[in-house]
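Tutorial sheet, problem 5. The two components below are modelled jointly, 677 residues in total.
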Amino acid sequence: MGERTAIRVLVTVIGLDGHSTGAEVVSRMLMDAGIEVVYLGIYQTPEMIIQAAIQEDVDVIGISSHASNYGQIVDLLELLKKNHLNNIRVICGGTIPNQQVQELKEKGVSEVFLPQSTSTSIVNYIVSHVKKPKMLAT
Amino acid sequence: MKRETDYGHPIKTFYHPNDIEGLDYNRDLGDPGSYPYTRGYYPDGYRKRVWTQRMTAGLGSSRQTNEVLKRYREMGQRGGMLVICDRTNAMPIDPDHPIGRREAGVLGWPGASLFEFEQLMDDIPLTGQSITLLGSCAMSSIRLAYIVALAEKRGIHLKDVHGSVTEYPFCTTFGQTDAQPLDLDLKLWLDSSEYIVRNKIRMRSGILSQHFQESGGNNAQALAVEMAMLKELCSLLVHERGLDFDDVAFLPYELVSVGSRFFEEIAKIRALRRMWAKMAKEIFKAKKERSCHLLISVHTSGRTMTYQQPLNNIARCAIQTLAGAIAGCTAIDNACLDNAHAEPSPLAARMSLNTQHIVADETGVTDVADPLAGSYFVEYLTNKVEEEAYQIWNEIEEMGGMIAAVEKGFVQKMLKESAQEKHREVESGERLIVGVNELVIPPEEDYQIPIQELKTSDSEDIARRMEEWKKSRNMPLINQKMAQLCVDAKKEDKYNLMPSIIEAVKAYATAGEIMGVIRKARGLSYDPLQAIDCPFDLQ
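Model answer (structure tokens):
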């Protein structure tokens, strides 16, 4: 087995939030930029996301949020720590009020992309923060 | 900047009589109140009755939502109330479900039982105003049962209640997603619709293009999808449930999304009236003139409300409200200035209701019906969007209709591609949005607006209260009703579950329990999220 060259990002929507358009648009823009996307879709619990992140060996978890259920993003961060997955970055995007943006960052979210963020800003952030893709397990 | 309609048709510098050559006034427009109703259903427009001016409520507990409804009344809500259900209820699962308890009361009202509906409606009349409950399709029959049960408890004749509490099955594909398979949603929608029609209840059912457009679809697609849905669902009620089209025609209402493409949005609504009237007469052979009237409400577009410089959204909301009013509609509810941040704050709600009153009372828009008729441009756009919509609708029909087109993924693909195209147009600067890709200011200089927040502890409080309340119920009675529901749900799909759902609701069975039992009877897991087991002993 060779070395994986592409960055791999898991894109999902957490909890009962049904707003999937943002996640779908972002998935497409990442794929167009040569990033591998694992799209989990809606109704994902923090536990399900962690499991998929391990199985798919992703570099970044991207959460699209339009339903003010930030508690579950915090639960996800805690689960990552518990499972010693500190190398996986969590980024969020969506209609997240300013105050929540600060709180999520304090709790360990790497970056929050607000509505109408450009493709370039999202792709650049990911590419510049995930420098060395991991080796694929053989 | 792109000079094209929302659906990609080039726009000229000006329009001329040649652009609407062949337009026949009587055949294609007619006076307001005359077939094909392009100009509206009423000869006197809004003079007798202005549109219902309402705001969406629903956040936190039933008590909190009840207070908001009363406040909206003081703020100038007129003619009707509108409540949106929360995400737990959309599925539906109960607020005390292990996953539900993390977000009960998020994005809406946690309407999981008749007890919650009684609290929601405390000191609020069921009659004299339209009662609208928005939510997923799966919950339609249960919401209708709340109305039936509360009317009975209050000693009110059901025929005196009007509004809408049921929603179309495709909403799970591109709107209020629920956790039920499409065939179950369809069955429950047909059951509730048949019950409404047979009992002559004055409740409408939302068959909405708003979700589709708000998810990124364009005007022509939204119009096509709306017509395809109306045709398929009305056909099922006529052919499978044996109802008369002239009774069915009273059922649907359409909530149209109105964005900032002012003239195009007005054209779309005018075209919709004409298309429905033609379908009613030509396809369904309507005998009553009234069957050619489709109830149309307007939701000004939440999608167009920007996160950046949120006060700009007041201007957008005003333009969209004016478009909705000019197009002609029965009710308007507005997206608020804080739509991209949170649920409506009291300030944002007041601004939206004030906007409606300013448009209604200060602009003169209520004086004259269909004021833009005869404009070369608007008539051209009305013809054009209709033509484009017929093309897409025909494609859907060739696939076998709306259900087939959804099963094949055609509608979803069309929506996804349109959403991506819209994003691309903004990124490339082909479409300008003030504060986003034009006249941008640094985030630290942006205005701070009040934010309506919901804390995680609020969801937990709602869950705990439900746990306690559940213990106080008459469990033998609930067990008995659930056993009956299970027996009925195993019968053929045409067997109407409304009577047994109403019985279960009256016994205070919850939404999660009722849907769980129906699921189990159909060979599905009791809990759609497979986190809890069925608490009932069912045979």
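Marking note: Chain A touches chain B through 29 residues (CB under 8 Å). Full credit if you identified this.
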